[in-house]
């Protein structure tokens, strides 16, 4: 049975999304840098390792029905503070992994969701602002390319720090991913802002 793959399965949104889909009976594969129970370990900036992890997920349950790209490098940095090498490393996590995942799985995967953020750039988070703006553009490009092949691409744009018991509770945010996955094609949304 095809299931869900979550890339960037840390203790916040990634784990909450996995739990939400699992409650509906979908098998779940978590991909994260940190090894753990039920986790396929891979660094999303390592193209070969990420592709191998995606293949492992497909071997377990078949090609994934849903992919959630949730990996992000969140760090405070101002314009000119980071050397180019560090900006490129942030870009590799925030954007490069999305491109690798999409190239490896689309159009076979029918729901491709990206955790967005920074609906407006924040001067104290330059690398993340740039990465999330690019992620939104990638989502739009993927939707234009693969939407005609019945692939739903969307972002869930999170407007603040994720923490349990707050407006940005990861369990509440996870509902958006489930709702997007279940939307009938005529009602597809391409961004949900929370």
UniProtKB/TrEMBL annotation:
Coiled coil regions, renumbered to chain: none
GO molecular function term, any single one: 2,3-dihydro-2,3-dihydroxybenzoate dehydrogenase activity
Record GO biological process: siderophore biosynthetic process
Superkingdom classification of source: Bacteria
Xref: SUPFAM superfamilies: NAD(P)-binding Rossmann-fold domains
Cited Gene3D superfamilies: NAD(P)-binding Rossmann-like Domain
Record's protein name: NAD(P)-dependent dehydrogenase, short-chain alcohol dehydrogenase family
Organism from which the protein derives: Actinoplanes derwentensis
Lineage of origin: Bacteria, Bacillati, Actinomycetota, Actinomycetes, Micromonosporales
């Amino acid at each position: 049975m095809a299931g869900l793959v979550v890339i960037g399965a840390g203790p916040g949104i990634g784990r909450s999304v996995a739990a939400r889909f699992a409650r509906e009976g979908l098998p779940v594969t978590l991909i994260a840098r940190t090894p753990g129970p039920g986790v396929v370990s891979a660094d999303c900036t390592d193209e070969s390792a990420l592709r191998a992890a995606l293949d492992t997920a497909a071997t377990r349950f078949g090609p994934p029905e849903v992919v959630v790209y949730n990996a992000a490098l969140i760090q405070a940095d101002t314009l000119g503070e980071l050397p180019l090498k560090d900006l490129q490393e942030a870009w590799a996590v925030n954007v490069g992994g999305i491109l690798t995942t999409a190239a490896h799985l689309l159009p076979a995967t029918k729901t491709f969701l990206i955790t967005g953020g920074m609906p407006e750039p924040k001067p104290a988070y330059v690398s993340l602002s740039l990465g999330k703006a690019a992620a939104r553009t990638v989502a739009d490009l993927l939707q234009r390319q693969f939407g005609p092949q019945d692939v739903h691409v969307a972002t869930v744009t999170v407007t603040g720090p994720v923490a349990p018991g707050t407006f940005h509770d990861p369990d509440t945010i996870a509902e958006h991913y489930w709702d997007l996955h279940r939307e009938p094609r005529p009602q597809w949304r391409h961004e949900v802002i929370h």
